[in-house]
């Protein structure tokens, strides 16, 4: 509440949210004013002033990395009146391990602290001295990934309101008498994957607000009295409740203020022994409130999901994962506010909507009601999925599809469609608004449907109609096609309408032979990656143009060519790509010639990577002209690595002007920046002899 008051008073500005949570900005003048008012009461200690923590200082944040024990300021150990201590951290770097004596001294010196951040440490145990901090309100132990148990002294912190154990992934248990923390309002246990159970009596912490994980061996009925329970709740190991399904109803999740509920079964069992029936009863009893925004279900059995799943009127995200025997889904079309649906590893699922097209059309034929808010759709590893609807035989024929009312329905707002490992999927409702599209290991029939399907157009209040003009996805920006064993070519009549496509990725398509007639239509393309296409010849088009069609890609900035055994040299048309910035050649075993015309790209080319191209024996003289080139990386090219040796290699004079040259061979790396030129700082590293 105080933070909002400061925001409304313009103390903070431009509040926003990213993957780490909410953030805001502060004007420079406001910052200077706050520092002036605080004076020495609050300070950020930098490395030069680490021994100058004043006696009157109450709030300290360390502004430099503590890489070892000797970096801990001795003045910090004497600052026994601190109210706040924030530990320095690097989210992606390794934590540090503090000597036990120093650790105990450091913690015990904070006996007046209200806020203590001890995150990102590598110590195996939390200091027992923590129990002496009787005034502590907030304790952050997140990312202490070596701690397995917490000291029982932590239960003496009777004033503690928030305990953050996020990403303590070796933590096995919580103290059994944690109920002594009667003021605990927020307990964060996200990604505590080794936590085996919750302690008994947890339900007595009635002020508790935001737990992140619950395991029923501590008694799921403990959740009954936690009426302020909010935020995210993960319940795992639900198969353990098959012998006591009555506990489920006692949890009373409908009365909780949850935003995100995750329900998980560890073992997938068949209907033998009544396991599936019990799982259905468990799921029925765990219905959350209508205000929930995200629901994840994993490991569920083979009976239909509870009907309440599709009654969650405010649901935004739905993920159903690894329910191997699940054969039917509830009518997901009723989720009018859902923006993301992810279906993964549902090996028995054949249709997303099991109703026949006629039945569906009679109930809901207006496309404006067909997933009106859906933005992202993931279909991953659904090996038996055949279609969105259970259709009749006639409707599966291409000539009947466009006359069937069902196929006039389309996703009006879908922006990202990702389909992987769905080899039997033959048709999908149209998706005219999609911007990112991935086909990976799907049927040729689905690909042909996308190529040939007319564009759906919808008028408000009317059914969708079709038009033969335009592209099926006119706003498509990114396209990936991979692991298509019989995919040989692109239909030119489709690609010349993809006027917005700026990213194209082709990978693991062993039958793809040519891009002839394709590239000249992709005028907006900026990124192209071609990988593991064994039969692809980029040089020879149908008319023997030796790759001149590439000159049409005027906007191309990144070109990545990997695992192309037929590639012997670069297409000649590349010399006309005046915007090309990055060129990557990897694992092209027959690549023998780097063309002289590479020097024509002197104004744009900034980075070249050549890796595992054993047939390439030298670099061209044109390399001397690449004045904009900043990085050259050569990896595992035996002849080329030898010729590019610093000062000694035959090709060294051709690349001596490049600020950074990285030479790697057999796992040994020599980074060779050199030549301090005007306006550029450069570190000279001489490899050991």
Automatic annotation (TrEMBL):
Keywords tagged on the record: Repeat
Domain Disease resistance protein winged helix: 5-34
Domain R13L1/DRL21-like LRR repeat region, chain residue ranges per copy: 220-345
Full protein name: LRR domains-containing disease resistance protein
Organism, scientific name: Quillaja saponaria
